[in-house]
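Entry 14. Two folds queued back to back today. First construct below, sequence then structure tokens.
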Amino acid sequence: MDLFNRENITNLLPHDGIVNYHGKVLNHLEAQHYFDSLLHTIDWKNDEAIIFGRHIIAKRKVAWYGDEGFEYTYSNTTKRALPWTKELLELKNIAEERTGEKFNSCLLNLYHTGDEGMAWHSDAETDLKKNGAIGSFSFGAERKFCFKHKQTKEVVSVILEHGSLLVMKGTTQTNWLHRLPPTKLISDARVNLTFRTIVLK
């Protein structure tokens, strides 16, 4: 018996990919507990990138955790996964139960205010399982999250709520870009967890 009725979760994308928004899967008290815990227990570091030969240090902070010391490379920088925390394992289990997927790592982002966002991109690193699912938890400030088709330029947007889960899978990363647009209207912090599956070579 499937307690979570996965088949009734609507696909937000019109074609060429699957994005399921599960909405708030945690109540407010649970979501607030995880938000506070993640702010204080995660080993946050400013995100770094090498773009056109320049070393860029972003305001946004990131962290990388996993089953083992996976190395993850993006924006020409490499990170080594830290051991899971208690809270991350709990959230991983919830994401796996909700989606029927298995994850072995998690990339976390801390956006201090609405001024911090993420430009258009797709999660297409070669280390990731091809067409594998990415389970994205949101905590803190509600933010708009956008998808844009690489060919047709169609745009689909959703507001990610405190304690919500969004899942990208299938050919989404191949055919769609996504971003977190900055906004002057939000002054509160947001923590985002993206559970992923790394394939060892």
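Second construct, same run, same settings:
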Amino acid sequence: MEQIHSGPMAGRTVLVTGGTSGIGRATAIGLATMGAHLAITGRDRGRTEGAAREIRAAGGGGVDVFVADLSSQSELRRLADEVLQSLSRIDVLVNNVGGYWNTRHVTVDGLERTFAVNHLAPFLLTNLLLDRLRHSAPARVVTVSSNAQAMGRIDFDDLQGERSYSGARAYNQSKLANVLFTYELARRLPATSVTANVLHPGVVRTSFGAEDPGRAQRLFIPFVRPFMKAPARGAATSIQVAAAPDLERLTGRYFANSKPKRSSKRSYDEATAARLWQVSADLVGLNTPNRLTTSDQGR
């Protein structure tokens, strides 16, 4: 006999990128317990399947698994194709994947990894899945940023850190880019039922930055780890923004501690946001007629 799922998210499909560990897995588990059908992405099939089993056990429903390295644009496009083939609807897209690299790494596309993973990946994936989100309306795009956005600055003269690289500066820039992207997306979807919001999850106890930690991280994190949020608490804001009924029509907002907050002054610069969108579209090859362009505004 087929199990009938109940809960406030019953009948809704949620895609969470980076759902194998930390905040992403906790977000997926939380939404599964609310009755949502989950789909998660991860780089390693074994770890992703393991996380899916855990999410199924918590929520009792099905979990779709997609394996892709989101630093690669070809993998992102393959991922989007597989998602569109597998999921007839996407009610919520949670752009959760992110990383910190202390030294400069270059992706297969020749781009600086922090900018590619933290900003260009959600930018491209959201655009590729936008039609499915529109057809599933009311739908939501939820992007995980960080309070580091307050220290960020978009350096259009050296976006890739080729002339001068700092792990912290690259990370801060990418997190500000998340907020600018979200606000610009909200402006470009004014007449649709797809909302776009962005959030700071808090300082959470995860393996974040472990691949290539900076000296400050190596020395500082062991001392403050006991005072950091557990992933389940860190996921609370993501879950709230993804699922709260009273947020169904709220768009273009920044959340922290599950409440709307003001983001940095730079994040509200519409000229910077529009320029970043154009530069990003060029970098990922999205300048095609069926994608969201400036001409879509106000429709």
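Quick look at the second one. Residues 113-135 form the longest helix (23 residues). Residues 205-210, 216-229, 293-299 have pLDDT under 50 and may be disordered.
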